[in-house]
């Protein structure tokens, strides 16, 4: 299984970015795919997730990105996108995508529940 995250960059506060996670080597539709981020000196934290087929491809978000970020998946292309709008300086972090076929709904926000991780893409939001 391989995950490739892309789309990060340097933007100003209020701008938008679209991250993409491309997956290979897995039955993609069966996997829950999440985005996590890690800022310098901080723990890796949950951002958003979209479940696999078994749980109806449902999206979930951490509270402080609700209404600003949208997660979506394209099962035909084995990709998950994270559309990020109204970016804030506190969104600055390395963003990682992660995938797992057996994470339960109550644990989608826990990084340790995911077996597969991409390499991360840097998002920097200037004020």
Structure description:
- With 127 residues, the chain is mainly beta.
- Helices cover 0% and strands 48% of the residues.
- The protein has strands at residues 2-6, 9-12, 17-24, 32-38, 45-50, 59-61, 69-74, 79-84, 93-100, 116-117, 121-126.
- The protein contains no helices and 11 strands.
- The model has no long low-confidence stretch (mean pLDDT 97).
- Strands 2, 4, 5, 6, 9, 10 and 11 form a 7-stranded mixed β-sheet that branches.
- It is globular, with a radius of gyration of 13 Å.
- A hairpin with a 6-residue loop joins strand 4 (32-38) and strand 5.
Largest sheet: 7 strands, mixed
The count of strands amounts to 11
Shape, per Cα inertia axes: globular
Low-confidence stretches: none
Order of helices and strands: EEEEEEEEEEE
Spatial extent as radius of gyration: 13 Å
Kindly report the average pLDDT value.
Answer: 97
Give the end-to-end Cα distance, rounded to a whole number of Å. 37 Å
Number of helices: 0
Approximate strand percentage: over 45%
Structural class: mainly beta
């Amino acid at each position: 299984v391989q995950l490739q995250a892309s789309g990060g960059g340097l933007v100003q506060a209020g701008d938008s970015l679209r991250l993409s996670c491309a997956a290979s080597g897995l039955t993609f539709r069966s996997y829950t795919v999440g985005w996590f981020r890690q800022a310098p000196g901080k723990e890796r934290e949950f951002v958003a997730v979209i479940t696999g087929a078994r749980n109806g491809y449902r999206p979930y978000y951490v509270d402080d990105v609700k209404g600003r970020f949208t997660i979506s998946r394209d099962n035909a292309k084995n990709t998950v996108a994270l559309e990020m709008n109204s970016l804030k300086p506190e969104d600055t972090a390395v963003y990682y995508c992660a995938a797992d076929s057996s994470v339960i709904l109550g644990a989608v926000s826990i990084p340790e529940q995911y077996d597969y991780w991409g390499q991360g893409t840097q998002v920097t939001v200037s004020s």
